[in-house]
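The data layer described in this paper is built around a simple, fixed record for each protein. Such a record has a labelled line for the sequence and another for the backbone structure tokens. For reference, a complete record is included directly beneath this paragraph.
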Amino acid sequence: MRWNHVPPHGMMLYHDPMPHLLAIDIGNTTTQIGAFDGERLVFSFRLASTHTRTPDEAALLLRHVLSDAGLQAGSIQGAVACSVVPVLTPVITAAVESTCRVIPMVVSHHLKLAVRLAVPFPEQVGADRIANAEGFWVEHHCAGIVVDFGTATTFDVISGDGAYKGGAISPGLETSAERLSQKAAQLFKVGIETPSSPIGATTEDALKSGLYFGGIGAVDEIVRRISGAMDGKPKVVATGGLASVISRDSQTIQAVDPILTLKGLRAIYLANR
């Protein structure tokens, strides 16, 4: 029996007896957990990256997530994680070890990668950006730009010969919205969504218009400038929470892949197990 609907709380549910690999992307705002059965992602779930969470709490949440997906902890045969939150890395890895009885592989520049980290200080490249570059390269094998919409919006550049060249980092759209509401006494936080008109008749509509079209404009301008500095025309793929929203009106984003980071984690695990 298989479930292929998406319930209200957002978990993608499938029932499979033997998923092999648990992939975890620990971000500043959310943590994405997915399980692969071969190349197929059999479930995916996002939870808040609560920085004060204990290993016991994380283990309880993980067991609940696996149970809701119809999976047994003992069916997980391997695990891999990337993290940009050092305080959460040992918490999540300990939770996986105690729940699934596997020790997660933690992504770093020291691991064997399909992409070459052709930057002066590879140790400074975020683990999520390594996973994004790896996921893009194993999926497309061409020059590309990965735009990841998270707490920060990151732009990762991969050359046509598989070299990671760096990129750009800008404030995330939701981060900008929250900061604006904090610094301006008469403004408030709004969600990032497509406005009904670029001309906001109310303060709320004006904020939505500025954040949405300003975010698109920034992304497209950065992508154009990066593309102009590359050899050939890169493929532009977006991932992250707001990728599907911003891509609707973007003139540069060519594809959206919401599980690109998880795909990269899987590829890294297979190359280093």
Observations:
- The first strand starts at residue 21 and ends at 26.
- Helices lie at 55-68, 89-100, 127-140, 173-183, 203-228, 243-246, 260-272.
